[in-house]
Amino acid sequence: MYTLTAEASFDSAHFLAGYTGKCRNIHGHRWLVKVEAASEVLHGAGQLRGMVMDFGDLKKEVKAVAEYFDHGLIVEKATLREQTYQALQEEGFKLVEVDFRPTAENLAEYIFTYMKGKQLPVKRVTVYETPANCAAYSEAV
Predict the structure, then answer these.
(1) How far is CA 120 from the centre of its chain?
(2) Is 71 considered catalytic here?
(3) What are 38-86's pLDDT values in tens digits?
């Protein structure tokens, strides 16, 4: 199995609605995303001969995900009062609304699904909240 890994980081805040610990409060991370693409065979001909895929294409998509979340507040839909959400928007804050609780686990799955949708041979996505704490998502084998 051949594996490529590309990574990008972004700074953003989130909070965990319905959680009773410290993470119920808005707080930020320097998130690091690592995306692994894999193949059992390499391209046999053409420009991609000897490659799993073009590293540039993988890096471009990982960077696009990081840019999407960068310097935003990741908010699970319907977890803020409507007037709070509107006030934040009126102040010009970048709000990134998602359909899931913004945990590292769910972000890893979200990014994995995004990469699959781009037809990339993604094997695993790992999301670090801190340098020592991460969550990963891969398809069941």
Answers:
(1) 15
(2) yes
(3) 999 999 999 999 999 999 999 999 999 999 999 999 999 999 999 999 9
Domain CATH for 50: 3.30.479.10
- Give the single-character DSSP code of 83: H
Please say if 139 is a catalytic residue: no
Catalytic residue among 7, 23, 105, 134: 23
Pick the catalytic residue from 40, 67, 71, 105: 71
Measured distance CA(19)–CA(82) in Å, rounded: 20
| 43 assigned to active site | no
Q: What is the pTM of this model?
A: 0.95
Rounded CA separation 32/130 (Å): 8
36, 61, 76, 129: the active-site residue: 129
The domain in which residue 9 lies consists of 2-137
Joined together, the tokens standing for residue 35 give: 């995306």
**DSSP label at 93?**
-
